[in-house]
C-alpha cells in the first residue's frame, strides 16, 4: 500500500494527525490479511448489507440507446440504499479493533452519513456526522434517517456549506479528539491511507462485476462507467478491472449548463493540495478552492481521489462531465424504462453510458455502477420538473 | 532582521519572544504600517502574517472567520506581498499559510516572492514532515526558513527529527485541537517536548502557539522552557472589534512582561 499514485496522494496534514494516520495504516495492513477480520466483514456484508448485489440487464434502456447492451450494477440495493455501506462497514470494524468508541463522518448527499449511522448503531459506536447546511436542506430525508439511526448530525455553516466544508469540520473534530475517535472518511479522498483503504473496501463492486459479467454474458464488459465525486464507487468499480482490457469511464458533475466548472475537478481542475492529498482541485490562481455547482450533493466537491488523478494522467481511465439537465434526463429514462429511481449521482453515469452505448455495436456490453437509489432526490427532481413545465 | 536571528538574540539575553499573528485582510491595508509599529512598540519580537486560505483545517472559529472575511474582501497573493512591504521593514516577519496557495504559485516562485518582500520564514500547518522535502529544498534556495510544527502527539524520536530539520524555529502546537480557545495539554508533556527539541537542536528556538490568549496561558507556555509564544486568535478578536491599536499592543506586551 503506497503513499502515492504516481505523483498524487500523500498525506498533507497537521502534525497532530500523523500518528493517527500511521496507526490506521498499520492496523489496516494487519486486519486485511487476518481471516477473522475478513470473515466478519463478509458476514456483515452479506447478512446485514445484502451482498452480492445483482448485475441487471437494462433491456428497455438498451433499446432506447440503440447500441451496446447496458447492464446495471445494483449498488442501490445495498442496505441503506448506496454503495457507501461497503466502506462504512469496513472502517467501522477497524475503529472497533483500534478501540476507538467514537466515529465521525462527513456527508454530502447524506448517503455516507446514513451508512455511518447504520454501522455505528450495529457496532455500538458513538456516531457524529458533519453535513453542510445547504446539503441538509436539499437532502432532508437522509438527515431524518441519520437521526433516527441514533447519529448526531452537526450542521456546518462555514464556506460554501457543502461537502468540502463538512470535511473541514470533520478534520477539525479529528484533530481535537484523535485519541478517542476514528474519522470514518466516506470517499476515496483525503490523506494516505484513506484512498487505499476506501478503494479496497469498495473493490467488492468491481470483483462482483468481474464474476457476474462472465456468468451473464460470458466475458468481461467492454466498458465500465461510474460517477465520480470523490470517486469511491468509481474506484471500487475500476480497481479490479484496471489490469484487464475493459475501458473505464468516470463521469463528473458538469453542473448547470452555464457553469464554468460545475464540480468537475478532473476535467476542469489542476493539480493542487486539498484535504490532505495532492490531486486535481478546482481552485483559483491563488489556490483558493472554488465553490462548486451541481444539482447532486454527492458529486458537489472541488477535489477528487488521488488515484483517479493518476488514472486520468496515465490515460487508463477517461473522465467526462455531464450537466445537471442530462442527469435529470437519465433519471427519467431509468424510472420510465426500468422502474428504477436512481440517485442523481449515478444518473450522471447513466447518461454517459447511454451516450456511449449508442455509438457501440449491439455485441458490446456496457456496465454502469448504479451507486445509490433516488428516494433522497425526489424533491429536487420534482422541483426541477416543475421549473421546466413553467 | 531575520526571524531566526531576532529569536537567537532574545535567547542570548534570556528574554522570551513574543510573536503576534496578523491575518492579511485587504480591507485593513491602510492600517498595516501603523499595526506593525504598534506591535513593535508593544514588545513584539517578530510578526507572523497569515495569508487566508479557503479551507483552513487547523484553525478554530476565530481565525476561520477572519480568513473567510479576508477572502470576501478580495485578498490576494499580491496583498500578502504588499503587507510584507509594510511589516518587514519594521519587524522580522514570517508568513503562515496552507499548502495549496503556495503550491499553486509554484514552490520556487512563491518562496522567491516571499523573500523578495522581506519574509524570512514560512509556516505551513498542513505540510507534514513526510511531504516536506521539496519544500525544504525550495525554501533553502530562496533563503527562507521553513519552520516545522511539533505537537503533543509527537514522540521523542520524531521530535528529534523535526527539531533538526526545521529552520528558523520549531513551532510547538500546545494542544490537541485547532487554533483559538481551549486548554493546553499537560505542562509536563509539553516541557518534555521542549527539552527533547532543545537537546537535539540547541540553537533552535521553540515557540509555543495555539491557545495562548492571556497572561496565564502565556506564562504557562513559557514555563515549559519554550523560548517564546505566538498569539493569534485572541489578537484577531481585538483587531476584529477595532480596538485602538495602542491598547491592543499594550495588551500584547502585558502577556510576557
Describe the model:
- The complex is a heterodimer of chains A (390) and B (257).
- Chain A has 390 residues and is an alpha/beta fold.
- Chain A is 45% helix and 18% strand.
- In chain A, a hairpin with a 2-residue loop joins strand 1 (4-5) and strand 2.
- In chain A, helix 4 runs parallel beside helix 5 (111-123), helix 4 (84-97) crosses helix 9 (194-202) and helix 14 (324-338) packs across helix 15 (344-358).
- Chain A is globular, with a radius of gyration of 19 Å.
- The model of chain A has no long low-confidence stretch (mean pLDDT 96).
- Chain B has 257 residues and is α/β, with parallel strands linked by helices.
- Chain B has a 9-stranded parallel beta sheet.
- In chain B, strand 4, helix 7 and strand 5 form a beta-alpha-beta unit.
- The two termini of chain B are 23 Å apart.
- Classes of the chains: A alpha/beta (390), B alpha/beta (257).
- Chain A binds chain B through residues 3, 10-16, 18-20, 158-159, 164-165, 168, 171-172, 175-179, 272-276, 281, 283, 285-289, and chain B through 53-58, 60, 64-65, 68, 71, 76-77, 98-105, 125-131, 148-155, 162, 173, 176-178, 182.
Task: Name a few traits of the molecule.
heterodimer; A: 390 residues; alpha/beta; four-stranded parallel beta sheet; 16 helices; 45% helix; globular; B: 257 residues; nine-stranded parallel beta sheet; 9 strands
Amino acid at each position: 500500500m503506497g503513499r502515492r499514485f504516481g505523483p498524487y496522494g500523500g498525506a498533507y496534514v497537521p502534525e497532530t494527525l500523523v500518528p493517527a494516520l500511521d496507526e490506521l495504516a498499520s492496523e489496516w495492513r494487519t486486519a486485511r490479511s487476518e481471516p477473522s477480520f475478513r470473515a466478519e466483514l463478509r458476514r456483515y456484508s452479506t447478512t446485514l448489507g445484502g451482498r452480492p448485489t445483482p448485475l441487471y440487464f437494462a433491456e428497455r434502456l438498451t433499446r432506447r440507446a440503440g447500441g451496446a447492451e447496458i447492464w446495471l450494477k445494483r449498488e442501490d440495493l445495498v442496505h441503506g440504499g448506496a454503495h457507501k455501506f461497503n466502506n462504512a462497514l469496513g472502517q467501522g470494524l477497524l475503529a472497533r479493533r483500534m478501540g476507538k468508541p467514537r466515529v465521525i463522518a462527513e456527508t454530502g448527499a447524506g448517503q455516507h452519513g446514513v451508512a455511518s449511522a447504520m454501522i455505528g448503531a450495529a457496532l455500538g459506536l458513538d456516531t457524529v456526522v458533519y453535513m453542510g447546511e445547504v446539503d441538509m436542506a436539499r437532502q432532508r430525508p437522509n438527515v431524518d434517517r441519520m437521526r433516527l439511526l441514533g447519529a448526531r448530525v452537526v450542521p456546518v455553516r462555514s464556506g460554501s456549506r457543502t461537502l468540502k466544508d463538512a470535511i473541514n469540520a470533520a478534520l477539525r473534530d479529528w484533530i481535537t479528539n484523535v485519541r478517542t475517535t476514528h474519522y470514518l472518511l466516506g470517499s476515496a479522498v483525503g490523506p494516505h491511507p484513506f484512498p487505499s483503504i476506501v478503494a479496497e473496501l469498495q473493490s467488492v463492486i468491481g470483483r462482483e462485476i468481474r464474476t457476474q459479467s462472465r456468468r451473464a454474458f460470458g466475458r468481461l464488459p467492454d466498458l465500465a462507467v461510474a460517477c465520480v465525486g470523490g470517486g469511491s464507487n468509481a474506484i471500487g468499480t475500476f480497481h479490479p478491472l484496471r489490469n484487464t482490457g475493459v475501458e473505464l469511464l468516470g463521469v463528473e458533475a458538469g453542473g448547470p449548463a452555464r457553469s464554468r466548472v460545475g464540480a468537475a475537478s478532473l476535467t476542469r481542475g489542476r493539480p493542487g493540495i486539498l484535504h490532505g492529498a495532492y490531486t486535481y482541485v478546482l481552485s483559483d490562481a491563488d489556490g483558493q478552492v472554488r465553490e462548486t455547482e451541481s444539482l447532486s450533493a454527492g458529486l458537489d466537491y472541488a477535489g477528487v481521489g488521488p488515484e483517479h488523478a493518476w488514472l486520468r494522467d496515465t490515460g487508463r481511465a477517461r473522465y467526462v462531465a455531464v450537466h445537471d439537465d442530462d442527469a435529470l434526463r437519465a433519471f427519467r429514462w431509468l424510472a420510465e424504462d426500468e422502474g428504477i429511481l436512481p440517485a442523481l449521482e449515478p444518473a450522471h453515469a447513466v447518461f454517459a453510458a447511454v451516450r456511449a452505448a449508442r455509438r457501440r455495436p449491439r455485441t458490446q456490453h456496457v456496465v454502469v455502477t448504479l451507486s445509490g437509489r433516488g428516494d433522497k432526490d425526489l424533491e429536487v427532481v420534482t422541483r426541477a420538473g416543475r421549473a421546466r413545465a413553467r | 532582521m531575520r526571524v531566526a536571528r531576532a529569536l537567537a538574540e532574545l535567547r542570548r539575553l534570556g528574554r522570551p519572544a513574543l510573536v503576534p499573528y496578523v491575518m492579511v485582510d485587504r480591507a485593513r491595508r491602510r492600517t498595516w504600517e501603523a499595526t506593525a509599529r504598534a506591535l513593535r512598540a508593544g514588545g513584539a519580537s517578530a510578526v507572523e502574517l497569515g495569508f487566508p486560505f479557503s479551507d483552513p483545517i487547523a484553525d478554530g472559529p476565530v481565525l476561520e472567520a477572519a480568513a473567510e472575511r479576508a477572502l470576501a474582501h478580495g485578498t490576494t497573493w499580491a496583498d500578502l506581498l504588499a503587507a510584507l512591504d509594510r511589516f518587514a521593514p519594521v519587524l522580522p516577519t514570517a508568513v503562515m499559510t496552507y499548502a495549496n496557495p503556495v503550491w499553486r504559485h509554484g514552490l520556487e516562485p512563491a518562496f522567491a516572492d516571499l523573500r523578495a518582500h522581506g519574509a524570512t520564514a514560512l509556516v505551513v500547518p498542513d505540510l507534514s514532515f513526510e511531504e516536506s522535502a521539496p519544500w525544504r529544498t525550495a525554501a533553502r534556495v530562496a533563503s527562507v526558513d521553513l519552520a516545522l510544527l511539533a505537537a503533543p502527539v509527537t514522540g521523542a524520536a520524531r521530535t528529534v527529527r523535526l527539531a533538526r530539520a526545521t529552520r528558523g524555529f520549531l513551532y510547538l502546537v500546545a494542544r490537541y485541537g485547532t487554533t483559538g480557545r481551549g486548554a493546553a495539554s499537560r505542562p509536563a508533556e509539553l516541557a518534555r517536548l521542549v527539552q527533547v527539541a532543545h537537546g537535539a537542536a540547541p540553537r533552535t528556538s521553540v515557540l509555543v502557539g495555539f491557545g495562548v490568549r492571556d497572561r496565564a496561558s502565556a506564562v504557562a507556555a513559557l514555563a515549559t522552557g519554550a523560548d517564546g509564544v505566538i498569539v493569534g486568535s485572541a489578537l484577531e478578536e481585538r483587531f476584529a472589534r477595532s480596538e485602538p491599536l495602542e491598547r491592543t499592543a499594550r495588551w500584547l506586551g502585558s502577556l510576557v512582561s
